[in-house]
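User: I'm writing a short methods note and want a consistent example. For DUF6381 family protein, I'll paste the sequence; you return only the structure tokens, no commentary, since I'll be parsing the reply automatically.
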Amino acid sequence: MAEQDSHRVHAEHDRDKAERLFQQAGRTDDPEQSERLRYRAERLRARSEAELRREPGAQFDDPDEEGPQ
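Assistant:
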């Protein structure tokens, strides 16, 4: 159980980090830097969200995505 909690905490941390990268990308004046930050944020968010969906009892925030059946 502690290992699952650790994975979830790490995934939540990565999701928060991705959000900060998106915000940073929106503040930069350099279009190339903004694109790089957005790319990193998208990848990080995708991985963290996938990890959170794998966790038992995870909530499904995407209405187009089916939960456990």
